[in-house]
Amino acid sequence: MQNVIDFIKANRGRYENELIEFLKIPSVSAQSARKSDCLRAARFLESQFQSMGFDVSLRPTGGNPVVLARWHHAPGKPTVLIYGHYDVQPEDPIDEWNSPPFDPQIRDGNLYARGATDDKGQSFAHVKAVEALLAETGALPLNVTFLIEGEEEIHSANLPHFIHENKEELAADFGVVSDSSQYGPGVPAITYALRGIVGEEIRVDGPDRDLHSGVFGGAVQNPCNALARIIASFHDGEGRVAIPGFYDDVLDLEAWEREAFAALPSDEEDLKKSLGVPELAGEPGYTPLERRWARPTLDVNGLFGGYQGEGSKTIIPAWAGAKITMRLVPNQDPATIHRLFEEHLRRVTPPSVKVTLKKGGGGNGPVLVPRDARFMKEAVRALELGFGAKPVFVREGGSIPIVLNFSQELGIDVLLIGFGLPDDNLHSPNEKFNLADFNRAIQTSAWLLHLCGE
Amino acid sequence: MQNVIDFIKANRGRYENELIEFLKIPSVSAQSARKSDCLRAARFLESQFQSMGFDVSLRPTGGNPVVLARWHHAPGKPTVLIYGHYDVQPEDPIDEWNSPPFDPQIRDGNLYARGATDDKGQSFAHVKAVEALLAETGALPLNVTFLIEGEEEIHSANLPHFIHENKEELAADFGVVSDSSQYGPGVPAITYALRGIVGEEIRVDGPDRDLHSGVFGGAVQNPCNALARIIASFHDGEGRVAIPGFYDDVLDLEAWEREAFAALPSDEEDLKKSLGVPELAGEPGYTPLERRWARPTLDVNGLFGGYQGEGSKTIIPAWAGAKITMRLVPNQDPATIHRLFEEHLRRVTPPSVKVTLKKGGGGNGPVLVPRDARFMKEAVRALELGFGAKPVFVREGGSIPIVLNFSQELGIDVLLIGFGLPDDNLHSPNEKFNLADFNRAIQTSAWLLHLCGE
């Protein structure tokens, strides 16, 4: 293995240049105008796998293709399914980027670009690890299947069907997903729980056109005011979600978890400062870490109505809208939460407006990975070897939609090994990936495959 | 006068073509990119007055110029100050126009264009009336000053200063403003009260960048949610404005007013239908007409924050904002209301966000014109002759910022004579002006000048 690790260190510059090429492709899955860019990103990966001798194909779905790449020449050895995604979040607000989101630039040892960490950089680390193993040893220590999709940022709408239809081909002994992060610099982590998500979009319609707010103001419900009132009704005055039944199925944190979280290095002042907020906020009775990892939320992601241009326009707008996501924790069920949301919405809608609920991007359930899952010990050791520090066990506030699906359809546990950092600005302007961590990630992946193949 | 009226009827086609030319100019004062269009609109009027032999000039202000045109060759006769504005509201939402807002088109006897009624069409009627009087009689029956400004839709920010500086030149015995409307088709009206207005713009800042709603959701205040909560706090659950002190100075409607309003033809079902709303709404204890004419309001004119594009973006937005106007009634004071608004805002802002209040377009007070104002009787008679029906006395929910200023600075009462119709879609897509009313308006103006000069 020393040769493999030396190879990975020696090729650091080339790996970075290849990642830069990958990041230049604006594969934003939420925007239909960039469908061809998504295809380009898939093709980029396809040619990577081709040159390594993988059996690779772009597999059609109802949306962007899945890159499926297999190297199954280790009979008697276990099979790993490595998942990643080549699509990225939209880049706006574009003005707030210090360098263009799709023109990757290196500053202070970090690579800045949309998708740098989420998830091009992290998934590419596994690609480069198998490349190094093949280059130095001529083979892989176990059977490897890569499944890299192009719709994670739009809730993987087509992937569950694809997995269901290709169960045999995807059969594996365990899964690996690197779409989370370290706990902090020098504190690698294995994630054992993920929050789920439900997306909603509300539209409030009032008058059939914008009205003069002087002529009609007072006699007509203003859709912006009505929407604000509806949104306000989603929380109580202290920060709890106020939708009746919302917390009914929430699994309480166990005592050991609260203790373990409390033992983690965590500084509320630092968090405040790093986010630039005057105060933290949230549900009473829980620490900020508990709120982010193990408590459900309701956030407005977008709000719109009426005149947004320069100066003023004295109207009662015809309509207003909001995009909303709720983060779910074990054992909340997306369908149940959607129903409760809808029932609440009907209850609080005044008769003077019409409210339409268009289910946004669908939803997916939360995840809990057992601490004794297969190869968990090897993952711990690989991170220790790759990063030079024992990993901690953490939860994660975000969703990786497909993890639940892997366990349900393929019967495997998934090891969630994150290589990014909490301040990598994923989904924000100035997304980045630390390039030293990128190289450590490649080493970690090589160690993991090696240890699991022993 | 019969010759004058015949002339007005005979020239109907030409008047309409000239108005169409005027309406083609997109003189949107709220948008700085259209400053030159505002100047073009002013120049259009200047050349109209030049060709009639008026002493006319474009007078500079801190913003768009004032068109000041005087014909003062009737010694011993009273002087009328006729006010109008050549600027118009922004045209968006542009998609909802059935024909382009600045390419005027005639359908079913109506002329459709931004500014058709507010206020190019209505003020142009007075211009054409003096033209007809001069053409048929060689002189005007009284001294006439036109003051046509270019910033009414942005709250006439520079006009008060202009009036103050040019008091002598603007001296008059009474004012005439046509920037309101008839009560309904065939029911001409004189307006004796106007609501005032105060504009505000709120910005709520949370984290210093958009955050991943999974990673940070629950521990950070969401600016969109916070803004919604703030906006919801502006009203109680029944539709009253809930800002403490907001109603303290409101002059109650007198018994005769409530009776007179109740006697007007008014149909709530028709109003609902014409506005396309499922139900009317508003302050308990008042009829829809009373709410629109004589009760103060608070309306969100624009609402914005986070991701508004296609699909979803799972963020906690860095900030959110709202444009708000409050309509005031006698005797509310704009400065007091602004202060109460600000105090309320400070009280309801949670410590987890920063709220900035940027005073939008300033404000102006409400107006009450005495029923026995000078030349009120002549105005009643002129409308009767021009429209063939006795006018009713009404209030108006909108603001004409400068009317209060005329009475305070020049010591004159202003006759508010509206030629438009309530469904003319002013400030909305598909603004229109009935062309038969346009001609009746020119006749009415000629009659008014004639009667006041007798």
Salient structural properties:
homodimer; nine-stranded mixed sheet; 22% strand; 454 residues; Alpha-Beta Plaits; Aminopeptidase; alpha+beta; four-stranded antiparallel sheet; 2 domains; 18 strands; globular
Helical proportion of chain A, percent range? 25-40%
The helix/strand class of chain A is alpha+beta
CATH architecture of the largest domain in chain A, by name, is 3-Layer(aba) Sandwich
What coarse outline of chain A follows from CA principal-axis ratios? globular
CATH topology descriptor of the largest domain in chain A: Aminopeptidase
Instruction: Give me the number of helical elements of chain A.
Output: 14
Provide the low-confidence segments of chain A as ranges: none
The share of residues in extended strands of chain A comes to 15-25%
Q: Any idea of the CATH class of the largest domain in chain A? A: Alpha Beta
Tell me, rounded to a whole number, the average pLDDT of chain A: 95
- In CATH, what is the homologous superfamily of the largest domain in chain A? Zn peptidases
First-to-last CA distance of chain A: 12 Å
- What radius of gyration of chain A results from the CA coordinates? 23 Å
Largest interface: A-B, 104 and 104 residues
**Strand elements of chain A, count:** 18
Oligomeric assembly: homodimer
Report the sheet with the most strands of chain A, covering strand number, pairing sense and barrel closure.
9 strands, mixed
Total domain units of chain A? 2
